[in-house]
Structure formats: structure tokens, C-alpha cells
Amino acid sequence: MIPAQLHLTLPLWLREHVDSQRLYEDDAAKVGLAIELARGNVEHRAGGPFGAAVFTAMGRLVAVGVNRVVPQNCSVAHAEMMAYMLAQQRLQRYRLNDDGNRFILATSAQPCCQCYGATIWAGIDELLIGARSEDVMELSEFDEGPLPADWIGELTRRGIAVRRDIRRDEARQVFVRYRELGGAAY
Q1: d(C-alpha 132, C-alpha 68), whole Å
Q2: What distance in Å separates the CA atoms of residue 173 and residue 140, rounded to the nearest whole number?
Q3: pLDDT of 13-54, one tens digit each?
Q4: What distances in angstroms separate CA 48 from CA 39, 69, 99, 172, 174, one per listed residue?
Q5: pTM above 0.90, yes or no
Q6: C-alpha span between 84 and 105 (Å, rounded)
Q7: Which of 49, 54, 130, 142 could disulfide-link 178, Cβ–Cβ 3.0 to 4.6 Å?
Q8: Residue 60 and residue 157: Cα distance in Å, rounded?
Q9: In Å, what is the CA distance from 144 to each residue of 22, 43, 113, 140, 147?
Q10: How big is the chain by its Cα radius of gyration, in Å?
């Protein structure tokens, strides 16, 4: 019999570390949460060193995600994908901004090719990035995959504003810590 249901979960430690009532007023605060999620995932050895969060334009938290690929045996369980799926489930729509409101994704590191594609279709209006993909590949074993040469321009043409290098050094340190703890061993 083939499976008819999929069940992905975030680690329990997130419940105690995410303040869903807080207002995240600026880009640094939003990316700071994504970095904190990535760092927590590493320290709790709950998955890879990536964190992401979906916000309303007013800075209200909609959903969070951390990398759960290895623990969930699911190649699409990236932080951005988890945050998108949970936001879509919460708002009951596959395109978040279909109601005319604006949504922001903050991520601890530049989206890989998979998450880049999902960003186009998820209904995101702004993408805030900590570490660059070259940081990820320099400091870890992750292959971020191919992106269009002008990936920022492509997102911009589709109405998605991109801002990167937000708290970049802090985001890079998560990968250093991940490597210190043994990387993909967990």
C-alpha cells in the first residue's frame, strides 16, 4: 500500500523559543529571528543550520521553519519550505498574498534553488537574507544548486524585493558552529 499522508514536524524546542506575540519591526529583527532559529536547530541537533520565518508587512509572525531534512527523511524539509507550508496551512491559501496583504520571508541564509523556486510561487513580497550562498558552500558541505545568473533581478521583476547581507557575519557563525558540532552527523 502506498502512503496517502505526509506528516512533517518542527522540533519541540521551538515552542519555548519563539515569541509569536512579538512585533518584529525591522529587517534586522526579522533576520535575527531566522538566525536564532538556525542556531537553535544546530545547538539542539534537530536538523541543519537553516532558519526562516514568514511575517506580515506589519511585522507580525505568521510561521517559522527550520531545516528538518535528515530527521524527517524528506529532501524538501528545508527551513523556507517548512515556513511556507505552515504559513499556507495557517492562512488556508497556497499563495500567501492572494488577499492583497504583503508578506515577508526572512531567512538565515540565501535560499537554495528549491527554496528560490518556492519563493516565486508562495506569494512573498520581500525576501530578507542573512548569509549568502557562497558563505553556505564555503563553511559547510551543502550544495545550494543552480540559480539564474540574475536571480535577484528575476525576483525583482516578479515583484519580490530582495535585501541581503542582513546580519551576515552572525549568520555565518551558525555554519561555523554546525561544523564544530560535526555537521551532517545529526
Answers
A1: 20
A2: 11
A3: 998 889 999 999 999 999 999 999 999 999 999 999 999 999
A4: 9, 7, 33, 13, 10
A5: yes
A6: 9
A7: 49
A8: 26
A9: 32, 22, 6, 11, 8
A10: 15
